[in-house]
Amino acid sequence: MDVLVFGAGSLGSLVGGLLARQHRVTLVGRDPHVGTVAAEGLTVDGAVECHVDPDGVTEVPPDASPDLALVTVKAYDTDAAAAALADCHPSTVLSLQNGLDNEARLADRLDCPVLAGTCTYGAMLEEPGRVTCTGVGEVVLGPREGGQSPAADRVGAAFDEVGIETTVAADMPHRSWEKLAVNAGINATTALARIENGAVLDEPASEVAAAAARETARAARDAGVDLSDEAAVDAVHEVAAATADNTSSMYQDVLAERRTEVDAINGAVAERIDAPVNRTLAGLLRAWERARDRR
Ligand SMILES: NC(=O)C1=CN([C@@H]2O[C@H](COP(=O)(O)OP(=O)(O)OC[C@H]3O[C@@H](n4cnc5c(N)ncnc54)[C@H](OP(=O)(O)O)[C@@H]3O)[C@@H](O)[C@H]2O)C=CC1
Ligand SMILES: CC(C)(CO)C(=O)C(=O)O
Prior knowledge:
NAD(P)-bd_dom_sf; coenzyme a biosynthesis; KPR_N; 12 strands; EC 1.1.1.169; Rossmann fold; binds NADPH dihydro-nicotinamide-adenine-dinucleotide phosphate
């Protein structure tokens, strides 16, 4: 399979690197990382290890026509990804991003099947040319509207072939909303309280996280997806326990003074329904982002 990874930072480099064990892969990202990959190859270390030689470029090549375009930019760069991919007419697109609506925004601009995905692998770009797998998890993917499709089966088989733990799912709307509830509960709470994921199991953080997850479940039901409050809160507890020592991606962003994905997570819930907890969490993170912009 000819795979183009748009947004070869931490996650894109890990998944692209693993796919490059069997497939022809082009990493589109930033220098000096992609230049180093082009010159010296990509090293994957940590929980999975390999050295591979994908192409590394800063723009989608003019002659590209990939079988699969993998979107791994942050949620706030999704529209730019869609614009860049529109010219190369990929046969299939898969988003592995966190946050709501990434797939819908890609589908608005692209004339091919857009698959939804969730990913619980952990990845960290340590230095140009080297990405660490900080935890083996699972990729779940399928048609964004639910059901089955030949495109989802083909991509699932390509991931399986290189040893990525993969499930092709017929209920992606439910799974995407459940992942959103986990991120809505854990990410902003940990970023604002400056705690590791495991601390979300204890009061008073647990009540904040559970309230954000329950509101997310209500927004899911409002959108026609059957996610109960109890299932959403259970998912937060399961993930917080399984990733107890993790610094959530939003807490990492705050520590590194980077923009967060709060608009696509808590902000997206508060945009859809009256959700005071998510609105407050989003407001506090946005206030921090504004102060950061002024510094
Ligand atoms: N890292 C992880 O373990 C996991 C991440 N995710 C999700 O995956 C997504 C990506 O996360 P992550 O990999 O950590 O993020 P990164 O910021 O590490 O990677 C995204 C990369 O894409 C680059 N990029 C953005 N726009 C362009 C462009 N127009 N052209 C070329 N390169 C571009 C960014 O560069 P620049 O910063 O310079 O713009 C950055 O290097 C997020 O939605 C995240 O929530 C999900 C599960 C696990
Ligand atoms: C699952 C979780 C909460 C793991 O840290 C995550 O997706 C994130 O940090 O963005």
